[in-house]
Specification:
By secondary structure, this protein is an all-alpha fold. About 60% of the residues lie in helices and about 5% in strands. A hairpin with a 6-residue loop joins strand 2 and strand 3 (about 345-350). The structure holds adenosine-5'-triphosphate and magnesium ion (MG).
Length: about 375
Amino acid sequence: MERKLDIINPPFDSPVTDLIIEIDTLRKRPLKGSTHPAIFFQIKHLFHILESIGSVRIEGNHTTIAEYIENEIEHPSNQPEAILEIRNNENAINFIEENIDKSPIDRAFISELHKIVVKNLDREGSRQPGKYRLENPRITGSSHIPPDSVLVNDLMIELFNFINHKHPEKYDLIKVSLVHHRFVWIHPFDNGNGRTVRLLTYAMMIKMGFRVDQGRIINPTAVFCSNRDAYYNALQQADEGTEEGLLIWIEYVLKGLSSEIRKIDNLLDYNYVLLKIFEPALREAERKRIITQQEHKVLQLAARMQEFKTAQLKTVFNNKSSVALSRIVKKLRDREFLLPVSANSRTYIFNFINNELMREIMKALDKEGFLPIKDEI
Ligand SMILES: Nc1ncnc2c1ncn2[C@@H]1O[C@H](COP(=O)(O)OP(=O)(O)OP(=O)(O)O)[C@@H](O)[C@H]1O
Ligand SMILES: [Mg+2]
């Protein structure tokens, strides 16, 4: 049923009101994370990969986390379509983070996102990247028939006006939810609408104050990727266009966002990260002989200190000569398990991106329930 796009007011005693109040306290709370920014950045990178794998999976890209990591470590120059689709999604996330502060969320911004999402793809590509569709598609697995293509432009103008209209802040989360549904309901592109809308939700959340650059990573797409049926059912409720249907949809979105934000906030607490993620991952790495016992010890210290100079290791390795220690550090550096904090610096930081430790870190995250998708890693 077609409905004018407008704010709705949830009853004061509805679960939606409770969720809005709850998520708003998270948005306003100052962040006092103990995780080193460079370490946090690596974790954030892993989550971007997970968001991307999850987002492309909705429509049947079957790349597993394990395959993706394998590819990144062993054959980074290999780019089959399935991997490219995930990379595109990661690039789109980066595009958002780099441009969201200088750019309004308008047609140009969405066009750019869509172009990045479908770039160089065949099966999951688009005939007109960045341009609205000229035909009337069906959505696989859904009974919704998007509006006729001649209506798309006007509907999108209405959508952008709604996004950029200055409603009171208390409506922000309702807006994010309504915009997500309205966008895919319109289905402005011939393909890639789902991938684009999940990115649009991310962009809107950053604009609303869930700042990634101040340390909080948020993984809103996990909400939509972990259970495709629940996502499609909730969208279908919103298709009804009734206030009741829309409230069911909004509740679905906000419940997911709230649990994601809480989960991810744990990663700002470095004690938690060290104990639950890094240390188990390093133990596994030694067990599998990815690293030696000595290397384990050095990496464990590196992880504990977050940032260190080789000389600082001496106190712990009092039976080792500095030459021997430097040799271990050099080897770990060559394998990129340690990286200088800046070029030529002698201060190092623990690194698990695109090396053999990445898989062990993912496994530890999985064990702690962080992965939005169920995979054997
Ligand atoms: N009942 C519905 N009403 C509105 N939108 C829907 C409905 N069911 C599904 N959708 C949206 O349509 C998207 C699929 O559209 P499309 O194929 O253009 O996107 P995609 O990015 O190529 O695929 P996908 O999101 O499935 O990976 C879904 O991700 C979902 O967001
Ligand atoms: Mg598609």
